[in-house]
Amino acid sequence: MFRPTTAMLVVFTILVVATAIWSSLALAYQSRGTARVLMMACLVIIALATIVLVFRTRAWWPMMVYAAVFVALLLWWRTILPSNERDWSPDVGRLAQATVSGNRVVIDHVRDFRWRSDTDFDERWERRSYDLDHLVSTDMIFSYWGMPAIAHTMISFGFDDGSHVVFSVEIRRERNEAFSEVGGFFREFELIVIAADERDIVAVRTNVRGEDDYLYRIALPRAEARSLFLAYVAEANQLVGTPRFYNTLTSNCTTQVYDMAKRIVGDLPLDYRLLLTGYLPSYLYARDGLDRSHSLDELRAMGRITDRARQAGTADSFSADIRRGIPALR
Q1: CA distance 252 to 181
Q2: pLDDT band (50, 70, 90) for residue 265
Q3: Residues 6+ away with beta carbon under 8 Å from 295
Q4: pTM above 0.85?
Q5: Which of 26, 33, 154, 283 is the least buried, fewest Cβ under 10 Å from its Cβ?
Q6: How far apart are CA 284 and CA 99, in angstroms?
Q7: In this predicted model, what pLDDT tens digit does every residue of 231-258 receive, in sequence order?
């Protein structure tokens, strides 16, 4: 009977280590308490025993046993499904849902909280109506909280009456649940498209969480801006009927913007800045998506809205206040 070579055993060992790490993390984020510890310990023991037996016996049967265990884990993984029925954190407690009738879009559950801290706020959800014939601007807002390579991305649509609505693709946290980048790879969070007032979704980041925000005006023709708006609406409506998991790499705030924009404006080549979202403004600038009459450094300096947002507080003029000093597109 053919016996595995040393090279084959090395490759198999690498596969065992990689799958064991993945499986351990999956168990860590999808099980609780003592059961989680026991299952992870059993998995590690099985993986180590498999590697030892393979090298000692140079037989196929330990490989087959481990493969069967891993297939069983994959079958369990497929049973983990997203849901809209959980005990949600209040700020993601309701899903935006829209009705489109010609040029008019009515959105239910537009969030308009007034935040004093992450745990102290006035909860307010509204029904708002938007006439796409009066859509006049599209702005992208980047919110930084740590390293310059990572930022949360939001799209703000402005209308000729001075009103704005922000769409933000985020994790849908359960009550008392904290965000984890690693957990975002392992089906820990559902996905949500939040529609919100700027005084809520910008101010909570700058004024409450201490994040640093930048606003860039996007050179998007009105027809494409309208299509992007409707793409967000369609995505929000779809999540009402078909919940999906958030994924740190493949289904996050920036990849959703990219997927929607690509359907509208065509060719958008893949780039590392789509993953390192803090550098996305340079990608947009290179693709002529920003005002080229100013340098990118100038746009960044003029677009820093953090201090203006803190000064504006919850004033009715919040949207106008944070845009002071940001030049209009030419």
Answers
A1: 11
A2: low
A3: none
A4: yes
A5: 33
A6: 31
A7: 999 999 999 999 999 988 777 777 777 7
